[in-house]
Each structure stands twice: as structure tokens, then as C-alpha cells.
Amino acid sequence: MRVYNFSAGPSMLPLEVLDKVSKGMSDYGGSGMSVMEMSHRSKPYEAINAETEELLRELMHIPSDYDVLFVQGGATNQFSAVPLNIGTASRKADYAVTGNFAKKAYEEGSKFLDARCVASSEDKNFTYVPELTADMLRPDADYAHICYNNTIFGTRYSAVPDTGKVPLVADVSSCILGQNIDVGKFALLYAGAQKNMGPAGVTAVIVKHELTARADERCPVMLRYDNQVKNKSLYNTPPCFPTYVVCEVLRYLKALGGIDAMEQINERKAGKLYEYIDNSDFYSNPVQKEFRSIMNVPFVSPSKELDALFVAEAEKNGLISLKGHRLVGGMRASIYNAMPEAGVDKLIQFMDEFKKAHK
Ligand SMILES: *Cc1c(COP(=O)(O)O)cnc(C)c1O
Description:
This protein is α/β, with parallel strands linked by helices. 36% of the residues lie in helices and 15% in strands. The protein is built from 9 helices and 13 strands. α1 crosses α6 and α2 crosses α6. The longest helix is centred in the last third of the chain and has 21 residues.
């Protein structure tokens, strides 16, 4: 039996994609082998690599002066790659600390350059997104860094901050492909695949080409954007299979109507869950409304004991991984692209039954 998996990541993949991938498991496209067994220098894999990039460009409307890379090491590796590649002119960078990952990015950046935290919502346990404007930044900063959707705390920017002349970098691991993102407003975007794009193991980097030519000379070769650009992300053996699954997810998303269609579905899924929570008189969500994520929805019941019982009983009903992050407690429903609307409906129905039994 397939369950509804509300994990923050790795998370669900569309069943259609899993079926398609499993059909090619022993013979992909007449090649006589699976993508896992294939040389990354072979014709069929080169086609997959190229198609994955093309589809991401098409779906996200990525302008032609941006490079699209598929690299290893997760989003976390980009916490180091970003300062080492583009933080090399003034060696200053300004960070907004809006959650755990944003903080980790800031701390990692501090190892390589003069990093400054210019905005933080830690005072209220990251339940809102603080304002970030150009006049809060050092005018000569190499970049400003934000985390666009805060996976653990369930917040997101309601609009892209205007950082003026300072290039804007965003970690979009938990919202890429789930909502429209105006790529042209950013200098660099990066995302680990395992929330909304595919399996863990591959990370997308979308970077303005002009920024790829200024890496620190001691930047490890695997982290250098110019090296990955030159080699079309095939400098060494890439994560072929995860990238292939990403390709299938992108094909699926395109057939569904692209990100516009996906965003509408996601707004509807999140909208009904928040509405239920707000009107329940039992559950609550701590996030200021305008900053609520449509991907990650944390909530609590009236007590820690009921929270634990909720998570255990939900699991018996095929609603998996609803335990909240240890920094927040309670529950968290991650409802990424591949969570069917029926999964959210079933969760709401379960929440209502649980409330009636324990109110
Ligand atoms: C999951 C996540 C990360 C960490 O990703 P890894 O690929 O495990 O390194 C970083 N940032 C955000 C916003 C995330 O959701």
C-alpha cells in the first residue's frame, strides 16, 4: 500500500514517474541497460543530461544569460560554493537569517569572507520573514543571501526582496518548481533535488553567466562553477540516476501544465489546510499569515502529549512523517508537488476525527 508521506525531504515522487522509471530499470529506451549502469559519456546519457537542462530552462523561464548546472553535495555544499565562487571581489556578503538553513549558510559563508547578518527573525523563533531592503546592505557586498522558503519553520518570502545593485542569491531547495520564481531577479539560485525535483544526490544551480568567472583560486575544482559550465556538469561522474529521475519529473510537470498549473494546485492544497487549522479551535500554526509557506505547514495540538499521539495514530492511517522538526516541535505537513490533493484531504479528515476524539 502506498502511503501519504509528509516528510520534509526526501519526499514523495509522482507515482507516474516511479512507474515510468521502474519500466526502464533493466532496459532504458532500448539501450539494454538501466541509467544506473550507463556511462555518463554515452549518447543516451548525454541526451538525458541535455534534456534535463532544457526542461528546467523551459519550465522556469530561465533567461539565456544564466547557466544551469547539476552538481553533487546537496544544497549544503552550495553554502560553501557560493562564497568561494562569487564572494571574491570585496569579500563581503550580507545574509538574512530566517531559519536553520539560512543560518547554516551564513555560518559557512563566515569561514570564507566577511559575512554579516543584516536581518533575522530569530527573536520570534523564525515565525516571520524580516524585511530586507537595499539600504540595509553594504553597497559593495558581493551578494545578499536569502532562503526563499524556510522548510523547518514553514515560512516564505511573500515577494522577492529588492536588493538594488547587490546580487541576490537564494536557496530555493524547498520551493523550486512549486511556485513561480522570477529568475531574472536573482543572480544565483540553488536547490537540492529531494524536496520537489527528484531523489537526493543532485543539486541544481542556476547562475548568471557573468558571475561564474571569478572563483577564488583555492576553490576546490568540484565546486567551481566555471569548471562545471565548461563540462556541462560532466566534469567527473555525475549522479546519473537521480538526474534522470529529475528529467522524468520535469517531463511530468510539463505535461501537467508547468509551474503555473502546479502553483495553483499547491495554493489550493495549502489554502484548505491552513483554513482548517485556523478554524479548528484545536490546532494552531504560529506563522504570520502573509509569510506562510505553501510547501511546509507546521502545526500543534493543545499539548505535547496529544502531538505525540497524533503522529502515532496518523501513521497507522497511512499518513507518514508528520512529526515536526525538533526545533519547532508539534507536527509538520510537507505538501510538496507530488503530494496529491487527496493526501491533504485525508490529512484534514484525520485531523478532524482526532480533534473530535480528544477535544
Ligand atoms: C533540505 C534543505 C537544505 C539541505 O539540503 P541538502 O541537500 O540536504 O544539503 C538546505 N536548504 C533548504 C531550504 C532545505 O530545505
